[in-house]
Each structure stands twice: as C-alpha cells, then as structure tokens.
Amino acid sequence: MDFALNDEQQLLRDTARALVTREWSTALVRAHMGDPSVADELTKRLTDWGALAEGPLVDLCLFLEECGAGLVAGPFVPTVGLYAPLLATLGDAEGFTAVTTGGATGTVAIADRTGAWVPNDGATKFFVPEADRVDHVAVIGPGPSVTVTGPVSPRFIATVDTSRRLFEVDAPPSTASTAPAVRLDPDLLADVQARWYVAAAAELIGTARSMFEMALAYAKQREQFGRPIGSFQAIQHKLANMALANESAWSAVYYAAMAIDAADPDRHRAAHVAKAAAGTAAKLAAKDGIQIHGGIGYTWEHDLHLFIRRFESSEHLLGTTEWHEDRLADLIL
C-alpha cells in the first residue's frame, strides 16, 4: 500500500501546520484555560475548513493531526470529527451543508459515566466536548436513536486537560427546539464510530509527535558532563523507541483512514488498531519525554505538561487503548 502523500495532500498538511503554528501558540493554550473566548478568532478561521468533513477521511486526518500537534481547542474538532459524519449518516443534507460551509457547529453526546462511547439509556450523557460553545448537540440514545437539539445547559466536568472542555448533557425532552428522534441502523452507527476512532487517533498522533520533537530538541540542547544528553546511549534508545512507535501509529491511522474511505471490510478492525496504536505511541512519548526533560518537565512553566494533559484527555476520549484492544479481540476471536 502506498502511504506517500500526493501534492494536494502535502499542500493541505503544510497549510494546516502553518495555520496552527501561526494562530495557536502555547501561550494562547494557557490563556484559553481561563477564558475560552480567546480562541474565537481561530475558531472563525477554522470554519473555512469545514468542507474537509465531506471529503476523504485521509484529508481530514491530515488536518486533525496538525490540530493535535498544536493542542487546538474549541468547536472545530468535535464539529468535523464527530458531528458532521453523524449528520451525513442520518441523511441530514441541510444540517451537513451548514457544517461544511461554516454556518453551524456541533458535537455528540453518547458516553455514559464510565466514558464508554456506546449507546445507552442513561438520562445524562458525559464527556461531551465543547457542549457550551456549539450550535447543536446530537444526543445518541438506545436503539440506537439520535436527537439533534439546539443550545443546551451543560455542566462542566473538570479533567486533567483544562484546554479541552468536557461537559455533562441531559437527554432532551421533546420541545420545539428539538428535532424528532431518528432511528439509526446499528451497522451505520458502527461505521460512524469507526470514523470517530480514526479521527481521534489522528489528533492523538499529532500530540505524540510534538512530545517527541520537544524531547529530541531538549536532548540536543541540554548538556551534562560537558556534552549534550542526546549523545548518551540511554537517551538515544528512548528517542529511537519513541520515533518507532510514532511511525507505527502514523501508518496504522492512515491505513485505517484509507480502509474507511474505500469501505474495505477490514475498516472496523483497522479503526480499533489505529486508536490503540496512537494511544500506545502517545503514552510512550509522554513517559519518556518527561524522563528526558528531567526536573524541568514537571514544572508549570514548561510547556511539556500541556501536551501530557492533552494526551491523557485524548487517550480516554472515545475509548482507551485497552478498551480498543478488547474490541479488537472481540472482532478477531
């Protein structure tokens, strides 16, 4: 399988990287923790990229990878990564067009208190991304059924990653602002979930890449015993293992994205592999990255903790590595 990017994909990746680098600094990430409105300008710019939701998943993953590398927060990722593919599956052409043209934002509420992103009959959904800053929330209930509602009254959930804001949302009663519940075929929901997993994995490998690059740069700069610590074999082994895990996860993510784009029978297995591989790579990058940075890596002043926090958030969102390995075992066995 050819994993090389074509000219258009290289341009997309480079443009996304330049946009995130220019518009979303770690200083802005810190400011966003206290006041989410500081990201409003970037949010407006990102709406221009809503059309990625109607193109190949590979292209969307290229963009989301750069979002993960820069710790981008706000409604864009849940809108194009979660909400838009659900609308497409429901056949909501009007709502989907509003998203792809930048006219609406949305998120998805499905998880129960344990964090499992599977349909359940709970009256409250948990860990709903950016629920207070989107136009619509798609609530998935038993059946499965989907109810799209307008503005809700979410309750903030404090997590280790204060740059990604998660909420509790109550399942809506039938009102004038709530669309009727729509039944969704379980197989179609499984396809949507596969897209969610791969999109989340793409964002996660971007975060892992940034942690690796920070560790590599620090190993070249920090000196001990009169030489850079990167010259010591123990550090080189850690960096080599991190690089190998990142490359493996990158391949798993884009194989899964291509499998989904091609409606390949292997797509569901590949989606679980992608999220598990991304989680494994990011965990190693966080663990060894903090080791390589030593004491400075534990301080509030250093930016490394921002990426470790995002890794923890992304690892648990849409299923942990262990959860996806269990689902993979179910498919194989």
Describe the structure.
The chain is of the alpha+beta class. The chain has a domain at about 185-330: Butyryl-CoA Dehydrogenase, subunit A, domain 3 (Up-down Bundle), CATH 1.20.140.10. It has 11 helices and 9 strands. The strands form 3 sheets. Strands 1-3-4-7 form a 4-stranded mixed beta sheet, covered by helices on one side. Strands 2-6-5 form a 3-stranded antiparallel beta sheet, with no helix packed on it. Strands 8-9 form a two-stranded antiparallel ribbon. It is globular and about 70 Å long. The two termini are about 25 Å apart. The mean pLDDT is about 95.
Supply the helix-strand structural class.
alpha+beta
What is the ordering of alpha helices and beta strands?
Answer: HHHHHHEEEEEEEHEEHHHH
What's the arrangement of strands in the largest beta sheet? 1-3-4-7
Sheet with the most strands, sense and barrel status: 4 strands, mixed
Number of helices: 11
Which band does the percent of strand residues land in? 5-15%
